[in-house]
Amino acid sequence: MEKGNHSEATEFILSGLTDRPELQLPLFVVFLLIYSITLVGNGGMILLITIDPRLHTPMYFFLRILSFCDRCFSSIISPKMLFNFLAERKSISYTACAVQMSLCIAFADAECLLLSVMAYDRYVAICKPLLYMVTMSRKLCKQLVAGVFAVGMVDSIICTCFTFQLSFCNSNIINHFFCDIPPLLELSSSDTCSNEILLFAFMGCITVISFVTVLLSYVYIISTILQIRSAEGRHKAFSTCSFHFTAVSLLYGTQFFMYLRPTSSYSMDTDKVASVFYTLVIPMLNPLIYSLGNTEVKNTLRRAMNNLLTNS
């Protein structure tokens, strides 16, 4: 990379998870397995929800979109990461880095906001069951999903433009396994104060608003469930929310840890581990969380397998 204005840069070097040669092949195998499970799990969830009319409800409509987001999010990062485990030179072009970061932000925001929409869906289903199908109409569901992706795209464009206006004169080695904002701010030779404020404001706003929506929804949900006299009714109501609550806890916990703190407290090695969990492990776990304890999904899978075996 030539020294000078950041517009002269043509590529970055991704340092990856580790520079130890003996760990590259084992890590390649581990993350290939994670990526494969992510593709199969989320692809299977999308297929099951699509083919079974019993799952054509608002809750499963949002779950299908979540699986789509997880599949895309993982695919933005994993192929390049896997390639770099086996490559001698772990380079990424300036444009590809900007595109990767922009897409990561868009899908991360979409997933975060989508979980808050799913919490609202559970609130309406449990607290206002008689109005559920009227309130959560097909039109409203599509509008909510469109709004989620619109916010994600706007945020990604703004954050990416601000980040790539910085100068990267001193080095082109990104201390990470993908193009993310914090390592690029650390790498920049420019004053990043305004970028840090922007990052904190946008990421904080989206995460906090989503988290508050989820929190308020669950306050009302728990309050309603505790008023149910039947133990069986309470158990059924709790079970419909437990999967979503687990996914929410994993995602928001990692997001708060990664982004809602000043860059002076960043440790890139720690953040790499958190990023692996956030970008690769959670997308793998989500279909397992939503399917293993979900009777409707398991029944659909069982019927699909039976039909497949019968026709073969």
The count of strands amounts to 3
* pLDDT < 50 runs, ≥5 residues: 1-7
Strand order of the largest sheet: 2-1-3
Major β-sheet annotation: 3 strands, mixed
The helix tally amounts to 10
Radius of gyration over C-alpha positions, nearest whole angstrom: 21 Å
List the secondary-structure elements in sequence, H or E: EHHEHHHEHHHHH
State the helical fraction: over 70%
Derived structural class: mainly alpha
| Percent of sequence in beta strands | under 5%
Describe it for me?
The protein is mainly alpha-helical and 312 residues long. It has 10 helices and 3 strands. A 3-stranded mixed beta sheet has the order 2-1-3. Helix 5 (138-163) packs antiparallel against helix 7 (193-226). The longest helix is centred in the middle third of the chain and has 34 residues, at 94-127. The protein starts with 10 loop residues before the first strand and ends with a helix. The model is unreliable at 1-7 (pLDDT under 50).
In short:
By secondary structure, the chain is an all-alpha fold.
Which structural traits does this protein have?
312 residues; mainly alpha; three-stranded mixed sheet; 3 strands; disordered N terminus
How do the strands and helices of this protein lay out in sequence?
Blueprint: E1 11-14, H1 24-51, H2 58-86, E2 91-93, H3 94-127, H4 132-135, H5 138-163, E3 173-174, H6 181-187, H7 193-226, H8 231-259, H9 268-292, H10 295-311
Parallel strand pairs: 1-3
Antiparallel strand pairs: 1-2
Helix pairs in contact: 1-2, 1-9, 2-3, 2-9, 3-5, 3-7, 3-8, 5-7, 7-8, 8-9
